[in-house]
Amino acid sequence: MRHRIALVALTAGLFSLTALPASATAASPGSGAGQECTDVKLSGELPLPPAGMAVRQQVTIGPDCTPVPGAVRLVPSSAAPAVAASSRTAAETRQVRSRSEMYDCCNIRMTGLYTTSDWSFDGTAVTASATDATQEWNREPWNAGWSLKSSGKSADCLAGCPVSVNAAQAEFSYQGVFDPTGVWYANKHSTTVTLKADGTASCEFDVELKHSFVGWNWQRGCE
């Protein structure tokens, strides 16, 4: 029972979602129908849950291009534990994975940014850390669809510091069935993972959408 109460407390009050104003416009070239949104910017933060668990949330672009946040869910992690230690050691190691994905109204994943961070810590400092970033995007037949335009990652400190801040970015462009010109759609994902000397961590997310539709949804997670 105590464990259940702790998980409920974790999901209450520790999550944020902000959105900059967006505007509704006519449908995009070749889109056929639907309410188009321009310059949608979403931000949010999720803490690293207990080992073996994952925190997930979906945010849907609703009427008038207003973000509608779904419930924050605590579910079993899809990743194997990085370390299976039964007691504390001089330097412990932990792993945190993040995901930031944009889906269309048909629940097709368009673009995604993923990070995996491993770090060791002794309660006073992050003794070592490393972060890997990967990207995925949806392609269409005849060499069309979403493409990776640029990507990068950085860290302010890798070892010997109380906190290590790791950032990753990915920009995507689109040219295909819904816009043959290639100038209408663009998605940008930014993720920042903060690793701490006490073994805790947090995942911060930002997404910028040049054009989008009501019904598109942003799925993010930290585990």
Description:
With 223 residues, the protein is mainly β. It is built from 1 helix and 15 strands. The strands form 2 sheets. Strands 1, 2, 3, 10, 11, 12, 13 and 14 form an 8-stranded antiparallel beta sheet that branches. β8 (109-121) and β9 form a beta hairpin.
What is Rg?
19 Å
What is the SS-derived class? mainly beta
Low-confidence stretches: 1-33, 82-89
Strand content: over 45%
The profile of the biggest β sheet is: 8 strands, antiparallel
Q: Shape from CA axes?
A: elongated
Distance between the amino and carboxyl termini: 22 Å
Helix fraction, binned, reads: under 10%
**Total number of beta strands:** 15
List SSEs in N-to-C order. Answer: HEEEEEEEEEEEEEEE
Mean pLDDT: 85
Number of discrete helical segments: 1
Summary keywords:
223 residues, mainly beta, eight-stranded antiparallel β-sheet, seven-stranded antiparallel β-sheet, 15 strands, 4% helix, 58% strand, disordered N terminus
Short description:
The chain is 4% helix and 58% strand. It is mainly beta and 223 residues long.
Give me the secondary-structure topology.
Layout: H1 2-10, E1 16-20, E2 23-25, E3 36-47, E4 53-61, E5 67-69, E6 73-76, E7 92-103, E8 109-121, E9 126-137, E10 139-140, E11 144-155, E12 163-175, E13 186-196, E14 201-213, E15 217-222
Antiparallel strand pairs: 1-3, 2-3, 3-14, 4-5, 4-6, 4-15, 7-8, 7-15, 8-9, 10-11, 11-12, 12-13, 13-14
